[in-house]
Amino acid sequence: MSTYIFILGKEPELSKAELAARYPTLKFLSEASEFVMMKLSDDFNQQEFNHLGGQIKAGKVFAKTNKKELISLIADYLLADHDSGKLNYGLSVHGWPEKNLRFLLLGLKKEFKTRGVSSRFANQAFKNISTAQHKGLAGGLEILVCKELSDFYLAEVVAVQDIDSYSKRDYKKPFRDMKVGMLPPKLAQIMINLTGSDGVIWDPFCGGGTLIMEGLLMGHDMIGSDINEKILKGAKQNVEWLKKEFDVKGKVDLFAHDATRMVPDKSFDAVCFEGYLGPPQGQLKPKKELADVLGELTKLYYLFFDSLKTADFKGPIVIGLPFFRVKEGEIFLNEMIHGVRLMGFKKELDLKYARQDQLVGRHILRFRL
Ligand SMILES: C[S@@+](CC[C@H](N)C(=O)[O-])C[C@H]1O[C@@H](n2cnc3c(N)ncnc32)[C@H](O)[C@@H]1O
Fold it and tell me: Which end of the chain, N or C, is less surrounded by CB atoms within 10 Å?
C-alpha cells in the first residue's frame, strides 16, 4: 500500500463522495478543501484513475516535511532517477497560495545549479501545472506540494484527468441533442461511482446515452431506456460508435420504456440517471413562473419511485434532478424528495453540481429502500 493524494475537481464534496463510494473500505487520512489523502494498493494507475470523474490529478506521496526542507527534498527526489541532460519538471501547490511557487521554483533552480545540473521548469508565470501542460512535460516529473496545517506532503503525479478522451466522448459522438440536455461524461462517472455497485446499472431516462457509455467504459453491463424512440435511436448510434472507438467489454440493452410505468422485467443491481430537466430555461425567472414545470417533474419522479417501490427494488438509486436558479434564489424538487422519503426510501447523499452561470443545475441524490 502507498499513500496517494487526490486533487479534487470543482465540486470538492462530490469528488470526496465519489472516492468514498468507490473505495468504501478505505479512509481519508486527511481531508482539505482542495485535496484528500488515502492509502491505496501500489498498482493504482492511470487506467484506474480514468474511471474517476471528480478528480483532477493523483500523486503518490514520497515525503512529509516542513517548509525549510521542501527545496532540498524535492531536488533529491527529482535527481534520484536523473541520468544526464536537462532536467525537466513541474510543480503544483495545493492548500497553499500559488504565489509560493515563485520562491520554490527559483529556489530549486538555484539548488540544481549548485549541484551542477541544468534544469527547466514547465510552470508558466509561476502558476500550477494544468492537466494539458502535464502531457507536455516530456518525460519530466510533476511534483505536488500539498500543505495541511504546518505539514507539507510531497507527491509525484502518477495520473491526470485525460481531457482529450473526455472531449472526444463528449463532442465526437454521432448523436448530440442540445435540447434534451447532455450530462458531462465526468459527472456521469461520478454518479456511477456513487452507486458503489460493480454490477448491472439501469438508466431509465437514458437520452443520448452518456451514462450508458461511461458505464460501459467502466466495465459495467448497462441497461438503458427512454420514452422517446428517436432519442433512443441516437443512444444506439452513440453506443455503436463507442464500441468502434474504445475498448468496450460490457454488455448493453437499450429499449423504449416509460419510466412512470411498471419496472421492466430485467435484472439490475443499481439505478442511476440524470432525469428529464424540464424545458430549457432561457433567462432568470421569478419562482412563480416555474410552478407548472415543478408540478410536472414532481409527478414524473414520484411515479417512477412508486414503481421502484412496487418492484421492491433494494439497490442504490443515484439520481441527478434539476434544481433551478430563480430571481428569489434556488429551488429544488423538495416536495417530490419528501414524498419519496415518505414512501420509505432513505436519502443517503445530497449534493449539488452546477456552474456559477447555469440556470438549471443538477441536484445529486442517493436513495435506498
Ligand atoms: C435530460 S435527458 C437525459 C440525457 C442523458 N442523461 C444524456 O446525457 O444523454 C432526459 C430524458 O428523459 C426522457 N424522458 C422524459 N420523460 C420520460 C419518461 N416518462 N420515461 C422515460 N424517459 C423519459 C426524455 O426523452 C429525455 O431523453
Answer: N
Residue labelled with grid coordinates 454488455 = 251
Structure confidence by residue, pLDDT tens digits, 257-288 = 999 999 999 999 999 999 898 888 889 999 99
**Segments making up each domain of the chain, as ranges:** 2-161, 164-368
Rounded to the nearest 5 degrees, what angle is found at the Cα of 168, between the Cα atoms of 162 and 170? 100
CATH topology match: 2-161 vs 164-368: no
How many whole angstroms from 345 Cα to the centroid of ligand 1?
22
More confident call, 298 vs 81: 298
The angle at the Cα of 280, spanning 207 to 288, to the nearest 5 degrees, equals 130
Closest CA to 64 of 5, 152, 150, 158: 152
pLDDT digits 0-9 by tens, 31-87: 888 999 999 988 899 999 999 999 999 999 999 999 999 999 999 999 998 888 899
Beta strands in 9-54 (DSSP E): 28-31, 35-40
> Concatenated DSSP letters for 87-140?
EEEEEEEESS-TTHHHHHHHHHHHHHHHTT--EEE--STT-PPPHHHHHTTTT-
- What pTM was computed for the model? 0.96
Look-up of cell digits 481531508: 31
Residue 164 Cα distances to 1, 170, 205, angstroms: 30, 10, 27
**Ligand 1: distance of its center to the CA of 301 in Å?**
12
pLDDT tens column, 173-228: 999 987 776 899 999 999 999 999 999 999 999 999 999 999 999 999 999 999 99
| Residues with a CB atom less than 6 Å from ligand 1 | 180-183, 204-205, 207-211, 226-228, 231, 258-260, 274-277, 300
Selecting from 3.40.50.150, 3.30.450.40, 3.90.1260.10, 1.10.10.10, what CATH number does the domain 164-368 have?
A: 3.40.50.150
- The mean pLDDT of 335-350, rounded to a whole number, is 98
| E strands in 227-344 | 252-256, 270-274, 317-326, 329-331
Domain 2-161 = CATH 3.30.2130: yes
> Quick one: DSSP state of residue 53?
S
Task: Report whether pLDDT(121) > 90.
Answer: yes
